[in-house]
Amino acid sequence: xxxxxxxxxxxxxxxxxxxxxxxxxxxxxxxxxxxxxxxxxxxxxxxxxxxxxxxxxxxxxxxxxxxxxxxxxxxxxxxxxxxxxxxxxxxxxxxxxxxxxxxxxxxxxxxxxxxxxxxxxxxxxxxxxxxxxxxxxxxxxxxxxxxxxxxxxxxxxxxxxxxxxxxxxxxxxxxxxxxxxxxxxxxxxxxxxxxxxxxxxxxxxxxxxxxxxxxxxxxxxxxxxxxxxxxxxxxxxxxxxxxxxxxxxxxxxxxxxxxxxxxxxxxxxxxxxxxxxxxxxxxxxxxxxxxxxxxxxxxxxxxxxxxxxxxxxxxxxxxxxxxxxxxxxxxxxxxxxxxxxxxxxxxxxxxxxxxxxxxxxxxxxxxxxxxxxxxx
Length: 376
Description:
The chain is mainly alpha-helical. 56% of the residues lie in helices and 3% in strands. It folds into 2 domains: 37-221, no CATH class; 227-365, no CATH class. The protein contains 18 helices and 2 strands. It is globular.
């Protein structure tokens, strides 16, 4: 039998190995297209005009119809506060096919743009703080206005501001149409998102208004795009649910543990999806632990905590497995109710893995068997 296999392998090598290109002989570079579009960005020559230029860029952004130019005014405002973002912004525009023309208080005149009057630095800071959130938060018709109204109010307080940002008494700077344009261009670029976050994290320490606003933003942005994972983690992992030891969801538990290990191996796990977007898209994909998400949803559905975002994306189904797992969890919670501090300090991934393996062996001994190993 071994001779037959060896002859077969030799035949395959002879027939097909010659068709496989040698990586060393391939040209793996890609064509770099010349920029064909153009956008304008602004930076003040006189730093005393920085507040004027921030207010001007925000105003231009709020009324711009062209998506790339809207993003250019947006990034100009951010770059006025964080100059280190300017080079990153230019590079992103160039990669997207746009040349950047830099303007200042002198060269904007041909564009028929007038600088806004001077505004309080705290107003500018509150503006920047609010519009930064657009890069990281979902832009949803149902919640956009209310969400940003509350956040804007909180940011105003952090900036030491007791007045409204707009003349009509409101604080939300952009309507949802403009927010979507910004999200589409700037909010979808990994380098921009990580660069802005670095600026926030590096300026959040101290007693200044800037530090207070940056500290608030750092907290709000934490765990961005990780809500499904955190939902399952809070519901099942922190409570040491026996659901995680059930052999019928072994694959999903392995995926969940893989995600835990990836996240906790980083220096700042709360920003995992921003600093490692490609890896996060794979490890945090909802489909990798769909059953655990459904179980968590049904466990939480009877509690007071609002989970509308999960209910909207969840296909609640009358699955006997899910029903059994929910009952298993509920029975566990009736017997064991340690304090929250115990949950947070006593969770052990390695211990959970050992317990899961033991549960699998017990199930196999009883004739249950598993589903096979997951590939991560």
